[in-house]
């Protein structure tokens, strides 16, 4: 093979590798005491939310937090409280990106927040139902919605098992559902 062909071939391989990596989405493993949940994050549609989540994950923030709010047929929420239900100190809230076209459907992960649309920090939830009422409808306080930033690609059985666990009157699981780690795997 001539030098010119080899250089062209190398350039094409390099271009292809760059193109593929541009579309590769980060994947995280949420290890719980009930099993492992693997989530593919969508940094194309929710870049700031994904960056925020990855920062918390890489800092080890989620280790020792729990799924503290579990509602069968709705969602499981975690990532902000320890096993004694004490809220962990977080960084500043992030801007809501719920107008990104992603919907709160079964198996998607979204940011939890207060009534302030731009108050999400570390807490997230995984939908166990199609929750269209949580989607963005307009940029009013009521219409902002909840930012979806990824989807479960493995371990939805674990999510559903957690969603069916008995809770007290305040949706707190009777048994601790610990988040042992959140690790970036890709």
Features:
186 residues, alpha+beta, Cyclophilin, 8-stranded antiparallel β-barrel, 3 helices, 27% strand, rotamase, Cyclophilin-like_dom_sf, Cyclophilin-type_PPIase, E_coli_cyclophilin_A-like, signal
Explain this structure to me?
By secondary structure, this protein is α+β, with helices and mostly antiparallel strands. The chain has one domain (27-185): Cyclophilin (Beta Barrel), CATH 2.40.100. It has helices spanning 3-23, 47-58, 156-163; strands spanning 27-32, 35-41, 65-71, 75-82, 108-111, 124-127, 148-154, 178-184. The protein has an eight-stranded antiparallel barrel. Mean pLDDT is 91; it is low at 10-21. InterPro entries: Cyclophilin-like_dom_sf (IPR029000), Cyclophilin-type_PPIase (IPR024936), Cyclophilin-type_PPIase_CS (IPR020892), Cyclophilin-type_PPIase_dom (IPR002130), E_coli_cyclophilin_A-like (IPR044665). Belongs to the cyclophilin-type PPIase family. One of its GO terms (biological process) is protein folding. This is Peptidyl-prolyl cis-trans isomerase.
